[in-house]
Amino acid sequence: MEASAEAFFYDGVALQASGEAARAEACFAQAIRLDPTLAEPYGNLGLLLEQRGALAEAETAYLQCAALDPSLFDNQLNLGALYTVQKRFTEAEKCYEVALSLDDASCKLWSNLGALYIGWQKEALAEKCLRLAIQLDPDYAKARFNLSYLLLRRGDYTEGWACMEARDWYQGLAKFLNCPRWQGQDLTGQTILIGFEAGHGDMIQFCRFTATLRLRGAHRVDLLCHPALKRLFQSLADVDMVWAFDEALPANAWDCWTPPFSIPYHCQTRLDSIPAGLPYLHADAQCVSAWRHKISPQASNALKIGLVWKGSVGFENDADRSLMNLEVLSPLWRVPGVRFISLQKGAGEDQAKCPPPSQPLLDIGTHMTDFADAAAIIVQLDLVITVDTAMAHLAGALGKPCWLMLPAYKTDWRWLTERVDSPWYPGVMRLYRQPVSGNWTAVVAKLQADLAQLVATHR
User: Fold this and answer.
1) Strand order in the sheet with 256-258
2) Which single residue of 160, 250, 308, 434 has CA 20 to 30 Å from 318?
3) What span, in angstroms and rounded, lies between the C-alpha atoms of 397 and 69?
């Protein structure tokens, strides 16, 4: 006797919970074939389809589920989240309104609404929703983390760093360390390891806190980082040992450890107390010499400008922070007296190798092996123009002038709001913000004008 649609559905739920997505998807599909009027399999199938990137098919499944049974709370929540990711804010809000009519005491729902309003740039509503979520469940970490974005963006570092402590992405590292996590206690005579978290740019920004821990009395400060950062971080004045996370770590080598993002919380860092002495990273002299002939093969009075127009495709906001292609920057080539050098690594390398004929470009980035190479190149340039990637942080940490292009959609919290400068990189970072989401034309026009002025001053 063939199993019922309900049996296939429950088998799919069990498989989904155990991480067997393909088998679970097959079960839900079979349940739907046996009984197309059963709503629940459509909702679960939609979630699996969304998780593997089939967004159009996921939306269809969610909508079918809602049509059959609009009272399924989780399906309304999931459909709203899908619309939020796609920036279909009005449709997302309608889904959440239906969900509110079903359960207005769900902290997850209020947190999702907060995330929707963050993307929609309705920050007052976002904060209200997130605070209500926290009030409903003080332990709901996602709402606190989302709130940290709003608070840090507006410069409220007192509550912002505290809410940032709700993140948990470093938990995997904690399992491998045999020492307690530092909680802000006295470090006099202690040895401490700064672990790694998030991306290369985050580590470049936060490695400055090695000096802060030294000032708080730490006897030894070691640093764990991405392999591509190890050689660069050895230039830090206040670090004793730098480890890459692909190396075997010694057992019981430290008295305590800390994620880098937690240091400003425990040290009560505020906008006016950011440790911002520049440069705090340095290029190796031999490495600089090795790159010199590639950057300046002949004498020239032209300004040497490094360009980065794309970030890592895996970043959640990459479609908004990265330029579609190098042609977007074409107006910059109308400024005489400038020589452009590509620092592009990964995405965009193909464009660097074969730039448009009207945009001559020296492709250097393709040949970089790590960030120590990038540093040796950047210190020989006059300026770096980049989207929001690790190269912006590297230029800033080296004390090199950097013009940073920022998207209007979910602008990263560390660049605050409305400012054209950065307290993290004072005197060297200039911010160019999109006036509206997707409008790089206005940004590039401003870059072109300022670049022309810079060339005139240089002459």
Assistant:
1) 241-244, 220-225, 191-194, 256-258
2) 160
3) 55
- State the average pLDDT over residues 114-118: 96
Residue with tokens 């005489």: 336
Q: Which DSSP symbol is given to 330?
A: G
- pLDDT of 1 > 60? The answer is no
Q: How far is CA 369 from the centre of its chain?
A: 22
Compute the distance between CA of residue 141 and CA of residue 149 in angstroms, rounded to an integer. 13
Handedness of CA 268, 271, 272, 278 (dihedral sign): positive
The pLDDT score that the predictor gives to residue 19 is 93
Mean pLDDT along residues 56-68: 97
What's residue 173's pLDDT? 81
Indicate whether 49 pLDDT > 90.
yes
Task: Pick the closest to residue 438 from 83, 55, 87 (CA basis).
Answer: 87
Q: Tell me the two tokens of residue 53.
A: 């990137």
- Tell me the percentage of the chain whose pLDDT exceeds 90: 91
Phi-psi region of 399 (alpha: psi -120 to 50; beta: other; left: phi over 0): left
Write out the E strands in 358-455. Answer: 362-363, 383-387, 402-406, 429-433
pLDDT of res. 165: 96
Average pLDDT over residues 377-397: 97
Residue 310: pLDDT band (50, 70, 90) is very high
Burial (0-12, 13-18, 19+ Cβ within 10 Å), 21: middle
Compute how many other C-beta atoms are within 10 angstroms of the C-beta atom of residue 128. Answer: 15
Distance CA 404, CA 100 (A): 40
Do the Cβ atoms of 434 and 445 come closer than 8 Å?
A: no
Token pair 């409305």 in the structure block, residue:
418
Given a contact cutoff of 8 angstroms between Cβ atoms, the answer to whether 201 and 228 are in contact is: no
Give the residue among 103, 119, 115 at the shortest CA–CA distance from 130.
Answer: 115
The pLDDT confidence band at residue 322, using thresholds 50, 70 and 90, is: very high
Q: Give the 3-state secondary structure of residue 387.
A: strand
Residue ranges of alpha helices (H) inside 195-245 are 200-206, 209-215, 230-233
Beta bridge partner(s), residue 119: none
What distance in Å separates the CA atoms of residue 129 and residue 156, rounded to the nearest whole number?
A: 18
Structure tokens, 203: 């580590």
DSSP conformation class of 112: H
